[in-house]
TrEMBL record:
PANTHER family the record matches: FAD/NAD(P)-BINDING OXIDOREDUCTASE FAMILY PROTEIN (PTHR45934), OS04G0423100 PROTEIN (PTHR45934:SF1)
GO MF annotations in UniProt: FAD binding; monooxygenase activity
Organism lineage: Eukaryota, Viridiplantae, Streptophyta, Embryophyta, Tracheophyta
Source organism superkingdom: Eukaryota
Entry annotated with the keyword Oxidoreductase: yes
Record's protein name: FAD-binding domain-containing protein
Species of origin: Populus tomentosa
C-alpha cells in the first residue's frame, strides 16, 4: 500500500503529539490540572541536614509559573484528544527512509515494516533517543538510492555513566504530603518525589552506574534494599507504594552539546524534535518541557511558511522554515543538555569534601531554587492558521 501525506511525524510521545496538534490546529490543548510547587527540601542522607529551597518564579514572579508537575499519561491523552482519530497510526515500525525527486521537488519516502510506503513533503522525527530519523540525517547518499553507512553529521547519543529508576506511587487513601518537592542525596545517589495529586506521587532514583534487573519487582527490591536503604522512611514508603506497571529503569544517554550546535539537525524538509534532537539527562526535569518548546518553534516557522504561500506547501520555503527552526533551537537545546548534565554531575559527584561543598554550599543554597526561572522560555505564539485548514495532513507513529 502506498500513501501520500503533506507532513509525517514519526513518534507519538510528547514531542510527536504536540507537533501534530500545533500543525493541525495552531493552538494549545485543553486546560489540564497541573500541580504547582513553590518550595522544596533537600536532605543530605549521610549528615542528616535538611535544606529548604524556595523556587524562584519565572519573570520574577510575574506569571507565577514555578515548578509544575503533570501526569505524563494525562498530557498525552490531552494532546491525542485534540487530533482526529485517523491522524494517528499505531503499531507501525519505520524500516527505511529514502529521498527522491518528484515534479522538480525532493520528497521523502518512508517504508514501514508492514510493507506500507508513505511519501511526504515534510518528515519530522520525534522518535526518541534512538531516533531512526536522526540517524538518517547523518548518512550521505552516494547515488543509485544507496547511502554511505557512516555517520557524518550528527553524532550518536552517548552514555552519561548514570542510570535512573522512575515510577508512580499510589496511595488509595491519600498520601498526606503537601505540594512540595522532596529530594535526598548521598554519595553517587539522588532520589526524590513530588505529588501529582492527592493520591499519586512521581518518584525517582538516579545513581552512578549501569546495573539493575529488568523485572519491576526486582527493581523495587534493589531500590529499597541496596540503593536507598539508608534513605528516610518517607521516601522508602513512597517506593513501597509504587505501581509496578509504571516502574522503569534506564541507562541515561545524552547528545553532546557540540553535536547539537554543529551537527546536522535537518536535511531539506526533514528534521527532528524532542529527544530525537537533544536527549538529555533528567537532572533539570526539562525533557518534556524542551520538547514542547520545539513544538511551538517548529509550528511557528512551518505555519508562517504555509500562510505566506497562500495555504500551500512550497518545498523550498518549507526547507528554509525548517532550517530557521533548527537555528533557533540549537543553542537553547545545547544549553539545556549542558545544564542538565552539570546539575547531575554536581549532585552525584561523590563524597569528597569539595564535591559536598559545591553541592550543598553552592548548588543547593544558591542555584537550585533559581532553576525554575532559568529554564523558562518564551517561544512565541503559533500562527492563527495552520495545516488544520488543509484537506489532508499526516501524523504517523
Amino acid at each position: 500500500m502506498e500513501m501520500m501525506e503533506d507532513v509525517v511525524i514519526v513518534g507519538a510521545g510528547i514531542a510527536g503529539l504536540a507537533t501534530a496538534v500545533a500543525l493541525k490546529r495552531g493552538c494549545g490543548v485543553r486546560e489540564i490540572r497541573r500541580a504547582k510547587s513553590h518550595r522544596g527540601y533537600v536532605t543530605n542522607v549521610s549528615a542528616g541536614d535538611v535544606q529548604q529551597v524556595h523556587f524562584r518564579m519565572a519573570n520574577n514572579g510575574g506569571d507565577g509559573q514555578g515548578i509544575r508537575t503533570v501526569h505524563r499519561k494525562v498530557l498525552l491523552e490531552a494532546l491525542a484528544e485534540e487530533l482526529p482519530v485517523d491522524s494517528i497510526q499505531f503499531s507501525s515500525k519505520l524500516a527505511v527512509i529514502e529521498s527522491e525527486e518528484q515534479g522538480g521537488a525532493s520528497i521523502v519516502v518512508i517504508h514501514l515494516e508492514d510493507g506500507t510506503t508513505i511519501k511526504s513533503t515534510v518528515l519530522i522525527g520525534c522518535d526518541g533517543v534512538n531516533s531512526v530519523v536522526a540517524r538518517w540525517l547523518g548518512l550521505v547518499k552516494i547515488g543509485g538510492g544507496a547511502y554511505l553507512g557512516i555517520l557524518t553529521g550528527l553524532a550518536e547519543p552517548v552514555h552519561s555513566g548514570r542510570s535512573a529508576v522512575r515510577g508512580l506511587a499510589v496511595f488509595s487513601q491519600g498520601h498526606g504530603f503537601k505540594q512540595e518537592v522532596h529530594q535526598f542525596v548521598d554519595a553517587g545517589k539522588r532520589a526524590g518525589f513530588v505529588p501529582l495529586n492527592d493520591r499519586e506521587l512521581y518518584w525517582f532514583l538516579t545513581y552512578n552506574g549501569d546495573n539493575m534487573p529488568g523485572d519491576p519487582e526486582q527493581i523495587q527490591k534493589q531500590v529499597l534494599e541496596k540503593y536507598a536503604e539508608k534513605f528516610p522512611s518517607s521516601y522508602l514508603d513512597v517506593v513501597r507504594h509504587a505501581d509496578l506497571s509504571t516502574l522503569t529503569w534506564a541507562s541515561l544517554k545524552f547528545r553532546q552539546p557540540w553535536g547539537i550546535i554543529f551537527g546536522k539537525l535537518s536535511k531539506g524538509n526533514v528534521t527532528v524534535a524532542g529527544d530525537a534532537m537533544h536527549p538529555m539527562t533528567p537532572d533539570l526535569g526539562q525533557g518534556g518541557g524542551s520538547s514542547l518548546e520545539d513544538t511551538v518553534v517548529l509550528g511557528r516557522h512551518i505555519g508562517n511558511s504555509f500562510i505566506n504561500n497562500g495555504g500551500l506547501i512550497v518545498p523550498g520555503d518549507m526547507a528554509k522554515a525548517i532550517d530557521d527552526y533548527v537555528k533557533e533551537r540549537r543553542w537553547r537545546a545545547a544549553f539545556l543538555v549542558t545544564g542538565s548534565y552539570l546539575a547531575g554531575w554536581v549532585q552525584l559527584g561523590g563524597d569528597k569534601w569539595w564535591v559536598k561543598f559545591l553541592r550543598d554550599g553552592i548548588f543547593y543554597k544558591y542555584l537550585f531554587g533559581r532553576i525554575s526561572g532559568l529554564v523558562h522560555k518564551d517561544c512565541g505564539k503559533l500562527p492563527a492558521m495552520s495545516f488544520g485548514d488543509m484537506d489532508h495532513s499526516g501524523k504517523k507513529d
